[in-house]
Amino acid sequence: MRKRVSREHLIPLLFHAPTFLTLTAITMFPLLYNVYTSLHGYRLAVPGSERQFVGLANYARILEDREFWNSVGVTFKFVLGVTVTQLVLGFLVALTLNSITRGRRILTSLVMIPMMVAPLVVGLMFSFTLNPQFGLYSYLVDRLGLALPQAPLSSAGSALIVLMITDIWEWTPFMVLMILAALQSVPIEPIEAAMIDGASEVQTLRYVTLPLIRPVVVVAVVLRAIEAFKEFDKPYILTGGGPGAATEVIDMFTYREAFVNFNFSYASALSIVLFVVLLAAGIGYWRLVMEGRK
Fold this sequence. Notes:
By secondary structure, the protein is an all-alpha fold. Helix content is 76%, strand content 0%. Helix 8 (156-184) crosses helix 10, helix 9 (188-196) packs antiparallel against helix 10 (201-229) and helix 12 runs antiparallel to helix 13 (264-293). The two termini are 38 Å apart.
């Protein structure tokens, strides 16, 4: 009996072993090599520097790097702006779609279209639209006489707002999809009981519906915040981190250190710090999910 049980457990493990070993190799080896590189003074322009051990000097440099902390500030502004706006718009659109009985599937499919476009393509679309020479935006501003900047990507004040609008346009459908699915899974009994007790629609939404869908909303917000924290494609295409460093998010700053300044060790240290931050966010996300299930 014991042999049979052990074989029943061993066969699935043998089938899963190749996948497990492959995933471990392609994730752990780059991570460990990144940690190794971050502890050295590897600069591509300096031959033999990959063997120069510097310990935690790269991590200490992060604490004193004003450009890094500027990118942190830009990143947090971006994350906060897009996440809150996507939550509000997603909730309003999801409520509207949930109240529609005819044509809901078609409208939902149309709302999902921006999310299906690759981020690189979204960046190119907005880049062409906002081009000051032949873009649609400049044409409309000029013809309608609007009090708006002709080249919003060239202004430090408006460039980050444009990036936020781009991300909001692309990823609000994700929030809509999550909240709409939560709304449609809410049981009808508590809502009917609240209506029988004389609660208004706003009161029912606030005290019955929102508490029931809170776990899904929290998960959606955390996932979007993590993804926004790793934003790279659209800043790279639209602004390149400029003007100046007004839109240089953390990933853009890390890219510049690695592939413009060729300071691979410092870039490795930055990526390790980013990994730790996202890992902490992932652990927080897991705890929120588990608390939502209780």
